[in-house]
Input
Amino acid sequence: MADGQTIRVSVQREAIDLTAEIARMEGEGAGGIATFCGHVRADADATGGGVTSLELEHYPGATEAALLRLATTAAARWSLTAASVIHRVGPMAPGTRIVLVATAAAHRAAALEACAYLIDRLKTDAPFWKREVRGGDARWVEARGGDEAAAARWE
Amino acid sequence: MADGQTIRVSVQREAIDLTAEIARMEGEGAGGIATFCGHVRADADATGGGVTSLELEHYPGATEAALLRLATTAAARWSLTAASVIHRVGPMAPGTRIVLVATAAAHRAAALEACAYLIDRLKTDAPFWKREVRGGDARWVEARGGDEAAAARWE
Amino acid sequence: MVYFSWVREAIGSGEELVDVPPDTATVGALVDWLATTSDGHARAFADRGRLRAAVDQAFVGLDAGIEGAREVAIFPPVTGG
Amino acid sequence: MVYFSWVREAIGSGEELVDVPPDTATVGALVDWLATTSDGHARAFADRGRLRAAVDQAFVGLDAGIEGAREVAIFPPVTGG
Output
């Protein structure tokens, strides 16, 4: 890892403070900052019932290690000046931020590609599991085949 | 343009409020939001003098039209739920936000690609001109050949 | 052993200590043996194609060895992000 | 006519009204004629490869026609973002 790269990963029950994360990177003198933020969707299912809550389970220890490995890899591959991955766990209401990836680099293409890499790989390489609650029903979300394909394009 | 697409462009002398823009998109129920934010760099030149100020000139009327055309094109091509392009003009200190592109979509790849498209195309298709002030000297920034190539990959 | 998501729910516990039979060489063999220990384990491990594993917190295939492992995790494909 | 960036500075003004000679068909021909009107214009338009243009606020090449145009802009390659 080159000098001056700031890597931060967090698996937290608290809300994700996007503003603070951007401000932190700007304070470090970032040229360009790319972010991706994912939110709990309130998709209606076949019966018309929307998601009332999403619960995120994870593998403590292994999760943080996986995120750190991804962020470090991205920082090296795209010469980032900073990379942050923040993922929430626990119960969340629709509209809530689940995940934030932020990357800073001197060149915009590097920041944007690294951001896409991190969110793609996080979907297949980090041990999180989603459980949707719709009224009284709860079901574990199935992995999507498209996620494997999206992750594989970075090999 | 499909229903429910919110397009916003702004060419402004005021600071760019990234937090407000994200909050606005989240309030509209976005699934995933990608952003790219560019900042005034304090690059040292060959003589060691850093940028003390950056001035942005633009072509009033034509600029807004160009940004609106780009945002509308991106929204249609990637089925975005929202797209915002905010560009500052006038004098700016190092570290200041020059430009913010934000895109919202149901699918992360769409939001990220549209964000990359907008910042790439903005660099060649929108009439802005940068003038760097280093102490007592000022010079107009030269266009970069790489920008033309980056814009061309979206044809 | 640690379990997550519906694997944990089917087994009814997120953690258990097990004395692995001495001839158990791989994660797959460990799963085969665990499936015989209760109806819950049998249900959790019914479809091997839907199982993923980690040995000492590193992701591995079901054919990975477990010699010297302190912690083996079994779980469904991940769905974060 | 409207000018921006160093084109504007060389000419010393961002705007001017001009009576275009009747046989001036393209942006390039207009630039050729403008370059004869002052030393500043000559300096601004010395290197045609560094000039870009817009007719009625739409980007065009220097070979574009100007018939019926109300506003022609001449400027360097853009450098925003």
